[in-house]
Amino acid sequence: MTSFNFSTWPPHLIPEQLEALTLAATTYALSHGLLYLPPSQLPSNTQPCIPTTAIHAPLSLIPAPFPRAQFQAARELQSVYNVLYARVAMDTQFLDTVMGAEQGVGKADEFTGTLWRGWKKIREDGVRAQPLHLGLFRSDYLLHATEDRLALKQVEFNTISSSFGPLSERVAAMHRNILASTSYFSASPHLTAENFPENSTTSGLVEGLSKAHEAYGVRDARILFVVQPNERNVFDQRWLEYELLEKLTRWDRHQIHVIRQTIADLTASASLDPSTHALLLTSPTNPSPYEISTIYFRATYTPSDFPSPSYYDTRFLLERSRAIKCPSLPLQLAGGKKVQETLTRPGVLERFLSNEGAKWGARALDLTAHAANIRATWMGMWALDSEDPDIAAALDHLPASGQEQNVPPGTRLALLKAPSLVLKPQREGGGNNVYREAIPAFLDTLPAEEREAWIAMEMIETPRGVSGYLVRASPSSSATDNGSIEKKVVRAEVISELGIFGYALFGEGEVVEREVGWLVRTKGTESNEGGVAAGFSVLDSVVLV
Ligand code: ADP
Ligand code: MG
Questions:
Q1: What does the mean pLDDT of the chain come to?
Q2: pLDDT, tens only, 330-361
Q3: With a 6 A CB cut-off, is 19 part of the ligand 1 pocket?
Q4: Considering just the CA atoms, what is the radius of gyration of the chain in Å?
């Protein structure tokens, strides 16, 4: 087997071929719902109006090369990750210690602390309306290039609002369609159908949602999607809704209906049945309330989703209900970067994977044999406030520079290794990290009491020299967009991030879980962040090499 040379990618195409591929890609995207809403011209507090236009999602013309073995390994690991995070979410004592506002990161991070306090109050009030939790997860990876090999390394594990499942399925279908229609002009021997893996993420995610709906057990109940106002990635969410309507349930061809509401809507529309704790929702079209089986959160992962304290009250009201939460507050907290870091400490992962994990109701299954494979996907991580003797010992091997006096060993190590690190706070959704050379100045101004809110993580060093063709819709009207192929397609050096989707329904007895699909996001190397909606980064698929 010869190894793939990333710096030869992408294959050469003449301008006429690029133009034909761009036409094929954008036309396919527009006709198959691979779409975003355009940036809103309305003030952000305006109620969403009925959209009249959509634009194709930013996309990659040619799939990103990814080693077959690492792709397969990532998919195979997902079931272990599904069970691992289910078990973390069930370990109240662990979450109190790591994420809580009395002992954990919630002391230093107000948002985490507020969510944790809300959860703790519900526990203290003895509310146990729903033992089941649903997770729709996405584990994100980059390839880490060392001298002699490429290793699969985890960026983060998402337990809330794991997006782009349906759109990634459509990008993969788009690449297969372009292959069928153009053969990519025989530009590369790698571009063949057997190197384009299947992607059926939508039905997999819907399987998770419908398993929760069925477990709830009320035939006519509905699923609630909690959404952000002014969401542009609505089609990704709608595809789940459309597929739920077509899903066969155990009630024989019974359809599952979805209601979309924002937290602001829910402040007025949501109530709990006083005796059963069933979540009841009114809507403008239906004043007599619907019962909700499952709450799927595509919002509430970031402080800006809570512009006033009443929004937290509404989130906690939902948590108290008998509906199955995707995710519950403990499962949302389990997705914290601080949990990711804590799992890397000696013995912590092993305890969760051992049979002891069964005490949280998860299946009595010893997964410790997988511990080494899971650990092999992790980069080094530590806390900035760490006083760990191992960290202090690592410092002995590094030359001091002066700036790192009078700070805890975790911060000193971050200063000394800054060029190969990223610092992360307890946030989701992109745009919050501090990279490499920016770290020392950032640490200079970080108040001591906020150190605990951050983790340091070694940078994953992706293969250099790989490029791609990135295509984005002009955000303005099509009048300025026609013809100008040079502006529409950008050839750039890129980094591709693989995400593996899985679901887990757990809380009583067995963890019901499955790996359900994948996505690739590709970004130009000039930007450090990966959020497709935020910067110039595109949806992609893989060509296995
Ligand atoms: P968020 O929850 O905000 O998405 P992430 O941990 O996913 O935070 O980081 C955002 C982006 O930063 C990632 O998509 C990736 O491109 C980059 N990134 C994060 N951690 C690393 C790392 N250890 N090495 C290289 N790039 C990273
Ligand atoms: Mg991320």
A1: 91
A2: 999 999 999 999 999 999 999 999 876 555 55
A3: no
A4: 23
Neighbouring CB atoms inside 10 A of 2's CB total 4
Residue bearing the CA closest to ligand 1, atom 16: 530
Query: 538 has which bridge partners?
Result: 522
Ligand 1, atom 14: closest residue by C-alpha: 530
Q: Is 163 a catalytic residue?
A: yes
Q: Which ligand is nearest to the CA of 143?
A: 1
Q: 156: Cβ below 6 Å to ligand 1?
A: yes
pLDDT in tens, 374-401: 999 999 999 999 999 889 888 887 777 6
Q: How far is the CA of 535 from the centre of ligand 2 (A)?
A: 13
Average pLDDT of the residues in 314-320: 98
Average pLDDT (202-209) is: 96
d(CA 22, CA 17): 9
Average pLDDT over residues 9-29: 96
User: 123 C-alpha to center of ligand 1: Å?
Assistant: 33
Q: Which residues contact 108 (CB under 8 A, 6 or more apart)?
A: 449, 450, 451, 452, 453
Q: Is 472 in the pocket of ligand 1 (CB under 6 A)?
A: no
CA pair distance 514, 499, nearest whole angstrom? 15
